[in-house]
Specification:
This protein is mainly beta and 556 residues long. It has 3 domains: 287 residues, Jelly Rolls, CATH 2.60.120.200; 106 residues, Immunoglobulin-like (Sandwich); 87 residues, Immunoglobulin-like, CATH 2.60.40.10. Helix content is 10%, strand content 36%. It contains 8 helices and 32 strands. The strands form 6 sheets. Strands 1, 2, 5, 6, 8, 13, 14 and 24 form an 8-stranded antiparallel beta sheet that branches. It has an 8-stranded antiparallel beta sheet with strand order 4-3-7-23-9-10-11-12. The longest helix has 11 residues. It is globular. The two termini are 14 Å apart.
């Protein structure tokens, strides 16, 4: 996005019109709330768990995108299948009610849309098959495409893990499948540990970036952690569950993942000095004592979400501090006329490597071989007449090209298939685990929201950013914008925010406070030296009591 377009977006988001829209969300009906979500720009999919295809007897999504390619015959977009753990059958709405009367689909109408679905520790979860993404907007969320994922939930039990998104770490208890990266292009919001919300975006789900050798590094690590204390967090027991609704959200701007609770982004240290069990030992191993916000994997994974014959697998077990290789991975193309395996790595190494591979069907090897990987990118051509079918198995090993053929990481074993579905409360590891929430909607957008935009969609005046008096943006000016050397915050007259008593805070786009900018007050203006500030987008928050002005500015 060029500077002019970005400034136009900034001006709209922080305009008086935006504030008026925020005020108008208060006290609306459930239908008004639904309409506001559906009318929000960039909507890819919004499930309200009420709209249903009569022909399919399944809940369906709304989309504001004209190219959504709705199944006209069945009046359906991304239809939902109801599921239960250990049961391969997919249920319709009617089938579920008949066969599972003890686990109702709906039992709570108090949420923002009035028709919450009950996700019940695997006794009821839901999913949209990955194959249904093909040629539809959800398939375009890939690589460095920005997006926002929002869900509205209320706890009804102590167990929570995956709540909503694309998540599947492989077959439980089968290590080589976990290493194979079943979470292709995963986007999900989870509430895994007490009091914390996690968000994650990855190409495969396998192997920490950069790589580590400690336990847990075989999984692509979580890239955003929100330390907001949830009033009714998992692990606190049913007696503490009440009628408190939360808006959980994650945003990805093409580079950084952020997670929000009720529109609030807060920093969280993964180093817990008082309780080592709450420390993140993988990140401590990778990052040492650094507490900087972690970036997502910078590699541009260009395939769409739905690409069952074009995908990436990653290896783990090569510690980046020793080899300077942050990641080894294989780019596979079983679609093009020239079928290929391409070894790639991030970082440099004095070592040479080689790849052993085999493609099997019903345990019989169709193709096998090995090729050296002496450079950062090495191509291996496969037979042009090779046809890979669903259920075929790909096996890969990464080895050092030494006398011993030392293997790095584990065997990667990947079964060819459609990939993980978009799911609501999906679990692994047996029944009686997984999400226990009432979910009153989930939505995906093809752009990254600001905290203020999330505040518009909270639908609870006690939680919204409007709980502070947000003063119209023309009470404070920030210029030059964009700027290179000097930033001026000016209190315009007349202003109900007092210049002398105001607290001015600068945040980067991840929510981290920037403390090292010297400032100088001069009457109704504050000057900041921004010469040493990295280029990018920042938020200026001006607060005086319960009055707040938020401004965005760009450092060139």
């Amino acid at each position: 996005m060029n500077t002019k377009k970005l400034l136009f977006l900034i001006c709209f988001l922080f305009s008086g019109k935006g504030f008026l829209q925020l005020q108008q969300t208060m006290g609306q009906t459930s239908q008004d709330n639904k309409n506001l979500v559906k009318e929000t720009s960039g909507l890819v999919a919004f499930w309200d768990f009420e709209s249903k295809s009569v022909a399919l007897d399944r809940y369906i999504a709304h989309s504001s995108l004209p190219e959504s390619a709705i199944d006209v015959a069945n009046n359906a977009l991304y239809p939902i299948s109801l599921k239960k753990h250990g049961d391969a059958q997919s249920y319709t709405v009617t089938d579920w009610v008949q066969q599972n009367a003890s686990t109702p689909i709906h039992e709570d109408t108090s949420g923002p849309f009035g028709n919450a679905i009950k996700l019940d520790a695997g006794r009821l979860f839901a999913e949209v098959q990955r194959s249904l993404f093909n040629d539809k907007p959800l398939a375009d969320i890939h690589g460095h495409q920005p997006f926002t994922l929002i869900t509205w939930v209320k706890f009804h039990g102590p167990n929570n893990h995956h709540i909503v998104g694309i998540w599947d770490e492989g077959e439980a208890g089968v290590a080589e499948k976990k290493y194979s990266g079943q979470r292709q292009f995963a986007l999900f919001t989870i509430n895994r540990y007490p009091h914390k919300l996690f968000a994650h975006f990855s190409a495969t789900g396998a192997a920490t970036y950069p790589q580590s050798l400690v336990s847990g590094s075989q999984y692509a690590h979580l890239r955003a952690v929100n330390g907001v204390i949830l009033d009714h967090a998992p692990g606190e027991g049913l007696s503490n569950v009440s009628d408190k609704w939360y808006q959980f959200a994650m945003t990805y701007d093409g580079n950084v993942v952020c997670s929000y609770v009720n529109g609030v982004l807060e920093n969280f240290s993964y180093i817990n000095q008082t309780n080592s069990t709450n420390s993140d030992h993988v990140l401590m191993d990778v990052e040492g004592t650094s507490e900087e916000a972690l970036m997502t994997n910078p590699n541009p994974f260009d395939y769409s979400i739905y690409s069952p014959r074009k995908f990436i697998v990653k290896f783990n077990g090569n510690y980046h501090n020793n080899s300077q290789v942050k990641e080894h991975y294989i780019d596979l193309d079983f679609v093009s006329a020239n079928k290929t395996l391409t070894y790639k790595r991030v970082g440099t190494s004095n070592l040479d490597y080689y790849i052993e591979y085999a493609i099997k069907r019903n345990d019989a090897t169709m193709v096998s071989g090995n090729f050296t990987a002496t450079s950062d990118e090495q191509l291996e051509n496969l037979p042009t007449d090779l046809v890979v079918e669903e259920g075929d198995v790909l096996e890969l090993r990464l080895k050092e090209n030494d006398d011993n053929g030392t293997q790095i990481g584990n065997l990667v074993r990947r079964e060819i298939g459609d990939g993980a579905p978009f799911s609501f409360g999906k679990i692994l590891g047996g029944p009686n685990t997984g999400a226990q929430v009432h979910m009153d909607g989930a939505a995906i957008f093809n752009r990254a929201f600001t905290p203020e935009e999330l505040g518009v969609l909270i639908f609870d005046p006690t939680l919204s950013v409007a709980s502070n008096t947000i003063v119209k943006g023309n009470s404070v000016s920030v210029y030059p914008n964009p700027g290179k050397e000097l930033l001026i915050v000016r209190f315009d007259a007349p202003s109900i925010i007092n210049a002398d008593d105001s607290i001015i805070t600068i945040y980067n786009i991840t929510g981290k406070v920037i403390n090292d900018l010297p400032n100088q007050r001069s009457g109704v203006s504050v000057k900041y030296d921004i010469q040493n500030l990295n280029g990018g987008v920042y938020i200026i928050s001006v607060r005086n009591g319960d009055q707040v002005v938020n401004k965005l500015f760009i450092k060139e």
